[in-house]
Design brief:
Layout: H1 2-13, H2 21-32, H3 46-57, E1 62-64, E2 76-78, H4 86-105, H5 116-131, H6 147-160
Length: about 190
C-alpha cells in the first residue's frame, strides 16, 4: 500500500499529472491500469505508454447522462476521459525507457533514479537510439585494409553498432567483464 502511495506522489509531482484532486484522479487511472510500482515501469514500452495515455483520455463505454433528467428511458453518453498533458506522456515514456535500462544493469528503481532531471537524460538517450543509423558493414581485409588497420578500427565500429537492447556492442569488449557487486552511487 505504501508503494502505491509513493507511485501516486511520483505520478502527480514528477510526471506532472497535477497535485490537485484532478491529479489524484489521473494518477489513480494509471495505477488502476497497472502502473502501480516503479518496477512496473519496465513492463511498458513506448507504444504501451501511448496506448495507456489514450485509454485514460478516452476510456470507451457508455454511462447514463447525469444531466438528462427524464422519465423512463435514460440517455447514454460516452464515459468522459481525463486530460493527460503531452509533457506527462513524454515523461512517462522516458521513465519507462529509463526503468528498462536500469533493470538491465541491476540498478534500483525509485523516485530518485527516475527523477525529473534523469528523465530528460533518458528522453535524449531514447531519441538518440531511435535516430541512430548503424554503420555500414565493416570493410573486408585485403590489400588496402590490413589486419592492423582493422584492429585499430574495430573498437570504434563496435561503439557505433547497437545491439538488440540499444546498447553499443563495445560493451562486449569492455575491460571489466563483471559489474561491481555494489553499483556506484548516482550523481
Amino acid at each position: 500500500m505504501a508503494q502505491v502511495a509513493t507511485i501516486r506522489t511520483y505520478l502527480r509531482e514528477v510526471i506532472g499529472l497535477g497535485q490537485d484532486a484532478t491529479g489524484t484522479t489521473r494518477s489513480t487511472a494509471f495505477i488502476d491500469e497497472g502502473l502501480d510500482s516503479f518496477d512496473a515501469f519496465q513492463s511498458f514500452a513506448k507504444a504501451d505508454i501511448k496506448a495507456l495515455c489514450s485509454l485514460v483520455r478516452k476510456p470507451g463505454g457508455m454511462i447514463e447522462d447525469p444531466n438528462h433528467v427524464g422519465a423512463g428511458d435514460p440517455r447514454q453518453v460516452p464515459i468522459p476521459g481525463l486530460r493527460i498533458p503531452a509533457l506527462s506522456e513524454t515523461r512517462l515514456i522516458a521513465a519507462a525507457y529509463g526503468a528498462q535500462l536500469y533493470a538491465q544493469i541491476g540498478r534500483q528503481l525509485d523516485a530518485v533514479s527516475l527523477s525529473d532531471t534523469r528523465l530528460v537524460t533518458f528522453r535524449r538517450h531514447l531519441e538518440t537510439v531511435e535516430s541512430h543509423d548503424d554503420p555500414k558493414t565493416f570493410p573486408q581485409i585485403g590489400k588496402t585494409f590490413r589486419i592492423m588497420k582493422m584492429w585499430e578500427r574495430f573498437p570504434t565500429f563496435l561503439e557505433e553498432k547497437l545491439g538488440v537492447n540499444g546498447i553499443a556492442l563495445a560493451y562486449v569488449i569492455r575491460e571489466t567483464a563483471q559489474r561491481p557487486a555494489v553499483l556506484p552511487p548516482q550523481d
